[in-house]
Amino acid sequence: MNCKVHVLLLRPADEPPPKRFDERLVISHIPLLDWEVIEDSVEKLKELLKDVEWLVYTSFRGVRATSKLAGLIREHVAKGKLRLAAVGPRTAEEVKSVIGVEPDLVPREYRGAVLAEELLDAGAHRVLFARSEKGLPEPVEVLRQHGVIVYDVPVYRMVVLERMVEAAVRAAPLYDYVVFTSPSIVEAFTSKWRGDTLRAVAIGPTTAARLRKAGIEPLLVPREYTLEALLREILSASCG
Length: 240
Hints:
The protein is of the alpha/beta class.
């Protein structure tokens, strides 16, 4: 049986689709978002480094946005004054590549709430988040509820590519599956989506929750919150 599954992948412009996967998957990619550094906030983060025990990254963009502080961060780490946490393996790899040190903590599940729980288990008292302007509030709230001093610094912002969103809305009904890779992607897409039928899948539970809030029930959420795992589950559901 010749099984072909047509997938529309909605991601930011700096995250192209996988170049090679299973030949049964025909993947199209429409970038909906770009991003930019918030320079004033990066300077604020620089001043706060001396006052915290943990620097937390919740995306690889946060790491890139603070790249000019890499030397200072390494200095604090080398002196034993600072530990680093990354929300998942992609972010952890970026920390190693850009900052030049191994993260001290990568949670067992790649979610902000689990990251907060493991920071509590590690005895965190003063934590600095370097993240998106629209970062999910949950990890910060969990830590503050337990008495942790948290500095939440937005070091970058996402920028909606309006014409690409319009193109995605027109194209989406033609695909077997439409892959949403973050809550921000859901927000951008649903700002213009007025259709009834959409075979949506979500990369993880926070993205799935944002889809449901917009009135779209995701068909799939992978057990492992990665694009590769999601594509494997799409293949399994479609081709057996």
